[in-house]
Amino acid sequence: MFKSKKVIVSGATGFIGQHLIPILLKDGYEVLAISRSQKRAETLPWFKDVKFVSYDFHSDQQITEVEGFRGLIHLAWQDLPNYDSSVHLKKNLPCSYKFIESLLNKGVNQVLIAGTCFEYGLKSGAISSSSTTEPTTLYATAKDTLRKKLTSLSLNKDFNLQWARIFYMFGKGQNSNSIISQLDFAIKNKQKVFRMSGGEQIRDYLPVEKAAEKLFYLYKSGNKGIFNICSGKPISIRNLVESYIEKKNSNIIPKYGYYPYSVYEPMQFWGIQNI
């Protein structure tokens, strides 16, 4: 299959996209960056180095600027972190499928999709990419369904499908509801106490820059299949928080047990690396 150095990136201004695009540019890729907000894109250092299209894939807007582009990295997904929003099944799923299929019809032959570790459901322990999916949220169900629909489509259309199940991340540009973002806010505002859960959950965290690197190497490899984007190193939320406080040289005190544990996540799970 012909591999092109011209790639479309949807969700270009999102948490991962803003870190992935500089890596692609450095390696000589020509990037068509797609995002709902040109205003947001213009604040990013790579804006003048990409071809940019303002696009909302929930709309009926047609993208006509894709001629010659043979690759797609699909990161766009709306209404997060509300994992049980009906938008995931009613809008994100059908609109993503329609968007991807339209690009395949225009010559795209390699598709990398950002999936989620939540597709595995409430499994505990070390999880491999070959584990069965048992999603328990509408978000994870929509992602898993999209993968199945695209897998079926790939039987009739000649394209490489790469499915990247992304575990937990932290770093610049993260959603303000994430635990590290909340902790950072509390430290910057000189709060004395940081309210959180008991912190006994075991998770798998990557700096977003590392996650972007893994997605880049996966895309560049052209390998088909399902891949875990993870560190492979379990860490407790308590240790994560305490390490971050120490790194920031802060005196803030974690108040463990203030919030209950999440019902849509197992207490202990982490990924087995295969990329």
Straight-line N-to-C gap: 21 Å
Question: Largest sheet at a glance?
Answer: 7 strands, parallel
CATH topology of the largest domain: Rossmann fold
Helix count, per DSSP? 7
Strand content: 15-25%
Annotated CATH homologous superfamily of the largest domain:
NAD(P)-binding Rossmann-like Domain
Would you give an account of this structure?
- This protein has helices spanning 17-26, 38-41, 87-104, 138-154, 179-188, 208-221, 237-247; strands spanning 6-10, 30-35, 51-54, 71-74, 110-116, 125-127, 160-166, 168-170, 193-195, 202-207, 225-229, 234-236, 253-255, 269-271.
- It is α/β, with parallel strands linked by helices.
- The strands form four sheets. It has a seven-stranded parallel beta sheet with strand order 3-2-1-4-5-7-11, sandwiched between helices.
- Strand 1 (6-10), helix 1 (17-26) and strand 2 form a beta-alpha-beta unit.
- It is 31% helix and 23% strand.
- The radius of gyration is 19 Å and the shape is globular.
